[in-house]
Specification:
- Helix content is 27%, strand content 22%.
- The chain contains 13 helices and 19 strands.
- A hairpin with a 5-residue loop joins strand 13 (371-377) and strand 14 (383-387).
Length: 463
């Protein structure tokens, strides 16, 4: 799987093996397969199994449950990028008469559409999808549980609707569209809606005895876009690389970044836990790093995919049991082990190939009132603005081509930054969303809102 120069150090490989061995033993999983990805390539694969001489490799399929939702989200973002829909559109505009059309497409992606978590009984994960042939059977008589857009409430129904939306706008079954537009371009040939040999069997492990019960592998029917897929650590390693960097054949880097950006208002408990949800992706702050990805579970299977974009690392952990090992914790630990043992080597510093003198003139310290900030030039004509030291508002800005910049992140996301010049062409101040930044604190030569006291700066005369 790797060339010699890509291989991890022996100590790192042993630490990774120890982590999944501990998880498989303590979690009592019949088998567990894992992979670590660095630079978009698999650099380590490990497996543990209760069957001697029969360890799963990177080509053995496991059911991946709700990681399927991330694939469905990719299809929806593709429709947006093709101009077929807007994420702010209500579902009703494109898929009428569902009874849940008030929710917007973005809200369904972020689980803020107010819909129920599950379909009406019987338990959809353990019964044939043929019992719910129509969307009305999936949604039930009262699909809403909360006001639309007000809170994050995980909903399998929402992704069923998104799958139906894809089918409506593409004129083909969800599975066919997924195969044509995502799986084939990315080379995910071992990802499928139904199991293909070799694949693991799903098991329920008795909570109080070391015995097992086989779990049924139901076809989820209409619910397929929420959790149907089977895949391998090899395929999911490639998918993780795509989610980190994008691939213009499928979805641009900018769009996958949008998927990884928080889009749902978190509950208080989620704030405390450092978790959030983007567009088809879970986000967590753990151990000082931001991890994105998705978990998955269906009767007989557990799955976890975790990416640390900053560390250029990802991991996947798959197990064939209904409960037991905490696969997302294990996946996060695999990333941490490599990040700490073999931290990412930064790219060499290189000067800009060219620089606009009028932009270079703006670099350096600026003051919003008495608060000192620094404007720095970034690649491709962009700039960043942040405090000279300590915490404070930080944002990056992209150039608009007319001497202005638009905020990309932080407090100033979407806000316009422009340099205001005097009649002689000299810079007077920066205007950022009506905030005035001057070269000196409350510069008398700039139009400071409220004016500057004519007596200027002064001390206090003590008796």
């Amino acid at each position: 799987m790797t060339t010699p120069q890509e291989e991890l150090l022996p100590g790192t490989r042993r630490a990774l093996l120890h982590r999944i061995a501990t998880a498989q033993a303590e979690g009592r999983a019949p088998s567990m397969a894992a992979v670590v990805v660095r630079g978009g390539e698999a650099v380590w694969h490990g497996a543990r199994t209760s069957v001697d001489g029969h360890g799963p490799d990177e080509n053995v399929q496991y059911r991946i449950g709700s990681i399927t939702k991330t694939f469905t989200a990719v299809l929806v973002l593709r429709l947006r990028d093709e101009g077929v829909l807007d994420l702010g559109d209500p579902l009703e505009k494109h898929l009428p008469d569902t009874g849940a059309g008030e929710s917007t497409i973005a809200e369904l992606l972020a689980h803020t559409g107010g819909l129920a978590a599950e379909s009406p009984s019987p338990w959809w994960e353990r019964t044939p999808g043929a019992l719910r042939p129509e969307l009305a059977d999936v949604l039930g008589e009262q699909p809403y549980r909360h006001p639309v857009g007000r809170r994050h409430h995980y909903s399998n129904l929402g992704y069923t609707l998104l799958g139906a939306l894809v089918e409506e706008l593409k004129g083909a079954p969800w599975e066919e569209v997924l195969r044509r537009e995502v799986l084939e371009p990315l080379g995910l040939h071992r990802t499928s809606s139904r199991p293909q040999e070799p694949h693991a069997g799903g098991w329920a492990v008795h909570p109080w005895a070391d015995v097992m019960l086989p779990e049924p592998a139901e076809d989820l029917g209409r619910m397929a876009p929420a959790g149907q897929l089977w895949s391998t650590t090899g395929d999911l390693a490639r998918f993780a690389g795509f989610l980190a960097e994008g691939d213009d054949r499928v979805l641009s880097a900018r769009s996958v970044l949008e998927m990884r950006t928080p889009a749902a208002p978190p509950e208080a408990a989620e704030v405390a836990a450092g978790t959030a949800y983007g567009l088809g992706m879970q986000i967590q702050h753990r151990g000082g790093r931001i991890l994105v990805g998705h978990s998955g579970s269906l009767p007989g299977f557990l799955a976890g995919l975790v990416i640390s974009v900053e560390d250029d690392l990802a991991s996947v952990v798959l197990a064939n049991c209904t409960s037991g090992p905490l696969v997302m914790t294990v996946a996060a630990d695999l990333v941490r082990i490599v990040a700490e043992a073999e931290p990412r080597v930064p790219e060499p510093w290189r000067p800009l190939s060219e620089v606009d003198a009028s932009v270079l003139e703006l670099a350096g310290p600026w003051y919003w009132g008495t608060q000192a900030s620094a404007l720095r030039l970034t690649a491709e004509g962009g700039v960043s603005l942040g405090p000279l030291s300590g915490d404070g508002r930080r944002s990056r800005f992209r150039p608009n081509g007319d001497g202005t910049w638009t905020g990309l992140d932080g407090y100033y996301a979407g806000e316009l930054l422009r340099a205001v010049r005097r009649p002689d062409g000299a810079v007077s101040h920066l205007d950022l969303g009506s905030f005035v930044f001057t070269r000196q604190p409350y510069d008398e030569g700039a139009p400071v809102p409220g004016g500057v006291d004519p007596e200027g700066w002064r001390g206090i005369r003590w008796p």
